[in-house]
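Meet our chain:
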Amino acid sequence: MSERTKQILILLAMFLVAVVFWNTIVIYPIKIFVVMLHEISHGLMAELVGGDIVKIEISPQIGGVCTSTRPPGFFPTFMIASAGYLGSLLWGAIIFLVAAHTDYDRYLTALIGIGSLVITYFVIKSGGLFGIIFCSAFSVAMLLSVKFLPHTFHDYLLKFIGLTSCLYVLIDINSDLISRTGIGSDADKIAEITGFPSILIGIIWMLIAALIVFIMLKNSIRNKSVQQ
């Protein structure tokens, strides 16, 4: 079996696992993790355009809210509203590609664990008990895995987290922005300031997300084949 075929089969297996167990406890922690990435992306963009993160809330129903201050005007509002889906998509792609292209898997796992603890301490601690418990437990689990589990585990774990994160963004965009509109989503906020229909914004975001996922997977498979 060629290396290219092996990589395609591994990615296909990960995709099937994600689909089969999508609404089970197996994928639930990753969904919550993606929500955290989504909300922290809003918060980081708010900081970049001159605002401040007030708090981040994460709910057991796989939802979240980032409360932040921002300067008035079109640009800050547009950038902050756009950062959630696109930011969490890029974080997922980065996690996947680092695992696929480097041997720094353990370091990345540790970085995710430490980063989650920092986020919990500074911004989630004022946002509700569930967020504190989940992020703390997730952080501890990631850090313990660095010490006790082998490199191969981290390689597949990070690829699965990254791939599932990207898939979740695609599904979430379709659910919140295309199948349903007018529910106060990020696209609805952008629609208010641009005049474009929120469904159009959702479609554009989904196309961008699909393109990023395609490039990510193609680059990963090609890189492995070249190394082989």
User: Anything to note?
Assistant: The two ends are 12 Å apart (CA to CA).
